[in-house]
């Protein structure tokens, strides 16, 4: 779990916002989690990296994998913290050089943990898992900081992959309500949205 101080800091720097936002997936959302802001704040960045490294420390892994572009700074620092190698998965195969989709020295049978910052539908992580498997890697887990609770974890698990999540968005929202930072009405509207989205993704 992300500790309460980190949640407050993320809210304070605007990494957790409320309003109307269109996500990469095209879905409209009443909240937005932008953890790219956190890498600009060393204290927040370090503490989040340490939290994830501690959560992953018991896994027998060789390589940490990032996904172009948002998760690369997270994967890089988590790999450094765990003293593991790093690879990253491109959005598209590059048209020159070795034309690889996975950059770095990924070898047959290496045990890999895929890192992403936030999970919504799980499609980015699933794509990365398939790319790594396609180059001989053995993906043993995926890990995210915050689960938006819109079916992403379930989709990843259907690929046979365990997922580590440090926080669910409802936990974050409940904490912010309890601290008087957002209203009960806003919380309830977000819960209604999540229930509706879960119904949409399950059909």
From TrEMBL:
EC number: 2.4.2.10
Any one GO biological process: 'de novo' UMP biosynthetic process
Cofactor(s) needed: Mg(2+)
InterPro entries: OPRT (IPR023031), Or_phspho_trans_dom (IPR004467), PRTase-like (IPR029057), PRTase_dom (IPR000836)
Gene3D superfamilies according to UniProt: 3.40.50.2020
GO terms, molecular function: magnesium ion binding; orotate phosphoribosyltransferase activity
Pathway the protein acts in: Pyrimidine metabolism; UMP biosynthesis via de novo pathway; UMP from orotate: step 1/2
Catalytic activity: orotidine 5'-phosphate + diphosphate = orotate + 5-phospho-alpha-D-ribose 1-diphosphate
UniProt superkingdom: Archaea
Classification via SUPFAM superfamilies: PRTase-like
Keyword set, alphabetical order: Glycosyltransferase, Magnesium, Pyrimidine biosynthesis, Transferase
Zinc listed as a keyword: no
Amino acids binding 5-phospho-alpha-D-ribose 1-diphosphate: 90-91, 94, 96, 116-124
Binding annotation for orotate: 120, 148
Domain (Phosphoribosyltransferase): residue spans on this chain: 58-153
Described function: Catalyzes the transfer of a ribosyl phosphate group from 5-phosphoribose 1-diphosphate to orotate, leading to the formation of orotidine monophosphate (OMP).
NCBIfam families for the chain: pyrE (TIGR00336)
HAMAP family: PyrE
Similarity section: Belongs to the purine/pyrimidine phosphoribosyltransferase family. PyrE subfamily.
PANTHER family the UniProt entry points to: OROTATE PHOSPHORIBOSYLTRANSFERASE, URIDINE 5'-MONOPHOSPHATE SYNTHASE
Subunit structure of this chain's protein: Homodimer.
The protein's name: Orotate phosphoribosyltransferase
The encoding gene: pyrE
